[in-house]
Amino acid sequence: MGQTSRPGEKPDEMLEPLPKGQTYRFACHPGVRCFTDCCRDLHLVLTPYDVLRLRKGLAVDSTAFLDQYTLQEKDPTWKIPVVRLEMQDNSGRTCPFVSPKGCSIYEDRPGACRAYPLGRAVRRAPSSSDPGRVEEEHFLVREPHCFGFEEGEEWAAEAWMDDQGLGTYNEMNDLWMDFLSRYRPGSREDLDPAKWKMFFMACYSLDRFREFVFGTRFLTLFEISEEEQEEMRRSDEALLRFAYTWLAYSLFGDPVLKLRETQQA
User: Fold this and answer.
1) Integer angstrom CA distances of residue 252 from 4, 18, 234, 255
2) Whole-model pTM above 0.85?
3) For residues 189, 192, 198 and 204, what is the CA-based torsion angle, rounded to 10 degrees?
4) Does the pLDDT value for residue 8 go beyond 60?
5) How far apart, in Å, are the Cα atoms of 4 and each of 8, 44, 110, 223?
6) Is 71 helix (H, G, I), strand (E, B) or coil?
7) Are 4 and 44 in contact (CB under 8 A)?
8) Residue whose C-alpha is closest to residue 247's, from 80, 131, 123
9) What is the largest CA-CA distance in the chain?
10) 107, 109, 121: which is closest to 157 by C-alpha?
11) Quick check: 56 and 124 in contact, CB under 8 A?
12) Could you read off the pLDDT of 186-197 as tens digits, one per residue?
């Protein structure tokens, strides 16, 4: 999820493994003859953190952003609600944020755009001594229309990710994939309408989820520390992390939240 592709393209055929320590040459700037060509006719699925960053960067609430800039659908494999960026209704089906000078929301661009042309696959290390450690593999996306590989300096994967500001994106998107990994595609039934609505709100509509947590009886039902409550009030990132915890509890029955004793009687 979060990757880009164009209709008719076969992404697997464009992927080139990038062994650890190996470098590649790449740059993207107005002088490259394909500049902004990659910003059109995309099937760009947005992660919850992409949505968080984009709507904050645009200074709009979640509902306004989702209504104006996204299409909402069911992922055919995971059978969960996903949102993708809606291309403009013009001949090039261009991104709504691209301009002749480049990306107009560059500081908050989606993770897939930020990482390009680098791809990243992760898994949690199986070692019992460090079960939370992330193991990474990298690859290059060599699309036929891209001439950026003829430009710029040599990059190692780690240096590129640091240069593009991917640290928090990778951290938040890894949490998202950890959550999704519980689904094991094909092993679960479709979400019923109530769970579908809750899933969508918690992942994509943080303004509404904030109201659910702080504007209802929620905090009287569950034991959540004052410190965690305060962090969620001031940080959308903390609220999104808690959203995954809530969904693990409400969808999967994981014992990650505790009812107050008065609610257990």
Assistant:
1) 29, 36, 28, 9
2) yes
3) 60
4) no
5) 12, 5, 10, 40
6) strand
7) yes
8) 80
9) 69
10) 121
11) no
12) 656 788 999 999
